[in-house]
Amino acid sequence: MLILNCPCCGVDAEESELAAGGEAHLKRYGPGSSEDDFHDYLFMRENPKGVHFERWRHANGCGKWFHAARCTQTLEVFGTYSAQVYEPPQEIKDAITAKRPGWTWRDFS
Amino acid sequence: MSEPISALNHASYDGGIARVEECGLQGMITLRGDLSDKVLAKAVKDATGQKVPNQRKALVNGDTGVCWMSTDELLVLVPYAEVEAKLAAMTNALSGVHALAVNVSDARAVFRISGASAREVLGKLAPVELSAEAFQPGQIRRSRLAQVAGAFWMDDADSFRVVCFRSAADYVFNLLKVAAQPGSEVGVY
């Protein structure tokens, strides 16, 4: 069972209160972009065994979106943070580095 | 004008480990905007006499009060008969700021669970830590009740008020009745 702390309302929300929103930090390639970029934006997703960044929504709660950093292998949660950022904040990166030295995920490490 | 009637018209359930009743009509205004805004705070104060609550707090006195719903949303409770007047005053007061107030009274149903085992009744239905240390009068929690969304706060140490969508009122009442059946105390709190 996954329990995430919602950074918007501060509740430790159980998985059934949340809605998964897929991979985090996608950059949208819309009209005017190349077909390859658009294809990658639409279809290419990370599927790591280990550190992963996801979007979640506190659907049965405050209704807000947020980001979560967690490990897909152990279900360990490294932290949650605001949805209004382009990349994980430094303290989240530090928390991951403390437990998974040398981790990388897309362009982040 | 036809006479307004609440979803279950004061249906109640006795004889279980807690009393469950539908509270009848309750005026409710959803207010969205910047909660730190002084104009918004004054509109809330004028409507309810309460200040803007902090995160997950509910300042409720009877059928008047204000609850924190999310970082940009409040639930304003007023007597049903006054909701139109209060909403008009609020809309007028908020005309200059980026905020929205809507009357949602008829979209909701309100229940009261009272009795020594009220915590257990709700604890069976919502994935929420409801021990006396974790949840106290003055707090509000939006969560789910089995399969539907619901919010609840405590009026005193032994009673909860539960708000859900009116369309789910019958479902929630049945849920609460089952969770409150005689002999179903768990004794965990």
From TrEMBL, chain A:
Transmembrane portions of the chain: none
One GO process term, biological-process aspect: tetrahydrofolate metabolic process
GO molecular function: sarcosine oxidase activity
UniProt name for this protein: Sarcosine oxidase subunit delta
TrEMBL record, chain B:
Pfam families: SoxG
InterPro entries the UniProt entry points to: SoxG, TrmE/GcvT-like
Protein name listed in UniProt: Sarcosine oxidase subunit gamma
Taxonomic source organism: Ruegeria halocynthiae
